[in-house]
Design brief:
It is built from eight helices and eight strands; from the N terminus they run E-H-E-H-E-H-E-H-E-E-H-E-H-E-H-H. With 229 residues, the chain is an alpha/beta fold. Strands 1-8-7-6-5-4-3-2 form an eight-stranded parallel beta sheet. Bound molecules: D-xylitol-5-phosphate and zinc ion (ZN).
């Protein structure tokens, strides 16, 4: 298995979240995101335990993989991620992000993701102290800061998120390795520049893109809002 996601490289990546896409039109929606210059596709996996919602599984990742040229950024909002790492990798995930609050040993989960040959991320919920990431900094390619309580698309951005992002940016600077700093939840034209100014370089956006009248324009406007920041 290999990953189509590069190491963090100074570019700002935009990852549309298909949680808000019209699933009837999924192929067309993803095709439009490719043409619009999206960097990755964000796929939210929910188990009804870690978060109060259900979403997708490896079968959807398999359907996307090989059809879309976009790397698949898979966000595991599940209580027990370890048994699912191999199925999602085999299905074609390019990056697997596990939550620090999930069950099982975090360091073991990250090591297993790398053994499977893809990039590894760790995510924290809004109420988790960013310092929990410090012990695994050497093992991650991406840190995902939730800027809403995970579980649903279309929620409002939590205003203390930029401060948390700044804290994580400092952690990343202390370790001297390229690590993506991704933010997920309530990202739109108004909030995108706040998180980039705070140090984020990867933005997930669901509702702001897929619920817009013109999703391509919405993605371009978010890109515009952060270009040169
Ligand atoms: C929420 C998910 C997000 C969601 C973001 O739990 O992790 O990826 O799709 O949606 P918006 O951009 O609508 O807040
Ligand atoms: Zn997500």
């Amino acid at each position: 298995m290999t990953s189509k996601i590069p190491s963090a490289n100074g570019r700002i990546s935009i990852a549309p979240s298909i949680l808000s896409a019209d699933l009837w039109q999924l192929g067309n929606e993803v095709g439009r995101m490719e043409k619009a210059g999206a960097d990755w596709l964000h796929v939210d996996i929910m188990d009804g335990h870690f978060v109060p919602n259900l979403s997708f599984g490896p079968a959807l990742v398999r359907s996307l993989s090989g059809k879309t040229t976009l790397p698949l950024d898979v966000h595991l909002m599940v209580e027990n991620p370890i048994p699912f790492l191999e199925p999602f990798t085999k299905a074609g995930a390019d990056l697997l992000t596990v939550h620090a609050e999930a069950n099982g040993n975090l360091s073991d989960a990250l090591a297993q993701i790398h053994r499977l040959g893809v990039k590894a991320g760790v995510s924290i919920k809004p109420q988790t102290d960013p310092q929990v990431i410090a012990p695994v900094l050497d093992q991650v390619d991406l840190i995902l800061i939730m800027s809403v309580h995970p579980g649903f698309g279309g929620q409002s951005f939590l205003p203390d998120s930029p401060q948390r992002i700044e804290q994580v940016r400092k952690l990343i600077q202390s370790c001297n390795r390229p690590i993506w700093l991704e933010v997920d939840g309530g990202i739109n034209i108004q909030t995108a520049h706040l998180v980039v100014q705070a140090g984020a370089n990867a933005l997930v956006a669901g509702n702001a893109i897929f619920s817009a009248e013109d999703p391509v324009l919405a993605l371009n406007q978010i890109r515009q809002a952060v270009s040169g920041k």
